[in-house]
Amino acid sequence: MTATARIAADRLPSVTLVPAETIFQKDGRPVVYRLNGSKFDETSIEIVRRGREQAAVSDGVKPGDKLAVRRPEAELIRRKG
């Protein structure tokens, strides 16, 4: 028999967990592409801790946000400006 287990080693208050594959680099800073209507908002984030599968983010996303797992085509990105 084999088993896989996850053990929580410490708690991080006021963070949102996001899949690591949703985080991209833009000009040396981490960003996510958050779905807003039919386009994606390019949003800077603040990473508290990052693992292989997930990252704890303290700023830039909130629970329930829909994030792109691949960088959207340029015409689908709404940049703040």
Could you provide a short overview of the structure?
By secondary structure, the protein is an all-beta fold. The chain is 0% helix and 42% strand.
Give structural notes.
It is a single chain. It contains no helices and 7 strands. It is mainly beta and 81 residues long. The protein has one domain (16-72): conserved putative lor/sdh protein from methanococcus maripaludis s2 fold (Beta Barrel), CATH 2.40.420. The strands form 2 sheets. The protein has a 4-stranded mixed beta sheet, with no helix packed on it. It has a 3-stranded antiparallel beta sheet with strand order 1-6-5, with no helix packed on it.
Report the uncertain regions: none
Tally of domains: 1
Q: What fraction strand?
A: 35-45%
Strand order of the largest sheet: 2-3-4-7
Question: Could you give a short account of the major beta sheet?
Answer: 4 strands, mixed
Roughly what percent helix?
A: under 10%
Shape: elongated
CATH architecture: Beta Barrel
N- and C-termini, Cα separation: 56 Å
- Cα-atom Rg, whole angstroms? 14 Å
Average pLDDT for all residues: 91
- Beta strands, count: 7
- Run of helices and strands: EEEEEEE
Under CATH, the topology can be stated as: conserved putative lor/sdh protein from methanococcus maripaludis s2 fold
Number of helices: 0
**Class by alpha and beta content:** mainly beta
